[in-house]
Amino acid sequence: MKHYEANFDGLVGPTHNYAGLSFGNVASLNNAASTSSPKSAAKQGLLKAKALADMGMVQGMLAPQERPDLHTLRRIGFSGSDAQVLSNAAKQAPAVLRACCSASSMWTANAATVSPSADTHDGKLHFTPANLVDKLHRSIEPITTGNILKATFNNSRYFSHHQHLPEHASFGDEGAANHTRLCSEYGHAGLELFVYGQEATNPLAAKPKLFPARQTLEASQAIARLHQLDDDSAVFIQQNPDVIDQGVFHNDVIAVGNQNVLFYHQQAFVDTQAKIAEIQRKFNGQELHFIEVPTAKVSIDDAVKSYLFNTQIITLPSGEMAIIAPTNCQDNPAVAAYLDEVVALGTPIKQVHYFDVKQSMQNGGGPACLRLRVAMNEMEVAAVNQHTLMSDALFARLNLWVDKHYRDELAVDDLADPQLVIESRTALDELTQIMKLGSVYQFQK
Any idea what DSSP says for residue 103? Predict the structure, then answer.
């Protein structure tokens, strides 16, 4: 049986904007109040996804969330017509309105944690939506995320869907952005690495001082239990609190893995050597490639600005690995020089491909943020909702859909425009028909 690692990219939503909502995310804060281009953002994401499909990868798309989220605004006391709700929220709670208009679900690395069937006791592929409790604008996503995942991976014979974890800081969970998997082949049992920022129930444990640690050890352990992983299938690693305070808000901003390669910064983890030894022991002597990037070659500041580690590492049909990097890496001299060097290190990584995803980058998310990784066998791929898998036809259809419904520009002040609600709902209602998702949104109930 053939095995693959599929990438399911988030389709950028019609309200893509720069509201600077993510404290701890340097790029998000630096570009706050800039004018965005929802149409360009969506097309950049589609081009990246189509390019990976053309490279021979299994590539899917996940639908965006309904925004503006009037349901949440009504939940907190705003009433009347949709226009009145928006107008009153803009006057009385502008920060909440901005949160309810965020298109942050485009970063599907935060949508869920996924454990492939090769790792789980029941032989099913498991999904747990992230609760994202640290940020208001993301904490309103999990229920709809679960609906979209169930509509995409819609066969209970192969897929097991869990409810998101309790909505409390002790179980703060940011999904696959803090999770990676090592294996010899995608279809073989692997080792799942859970990276956490703090141990919430231990007041004496190390944690960052400036920015929040969004992932807790308790959340990571809970997901490992839900996904039926045994002790030899999981490693729990603490992210270095000092790098969180330098803008490394998720592990995928400082480390990324693929098959038998772990690519990480020298300062990424706490107690690095002990954890490397644990990984080697649990990998049972199979070949591993640890690529540690020294601070002397790439500083934390350059890593964050360029998103060197928020790249994708993919295994091409040829068996070679390639890095999918944002053009920001190409524009950074230190990072570009290191990427030229890494392909000559004698590891499986032999290629680097650059993509323009600046609309996403300016809001704090690179190529790796835009995708949810799902290791699957050919029977599981066949069981996926086929209308969500990238093809020439879907690419053309989605581009026409974006041209029809998306604005060229969107300023933060435009978020109170009642016409935006109509435009967004019309677009999403049509999208659910294109992708055969059924009624996944609140307005469709």
Answer: -
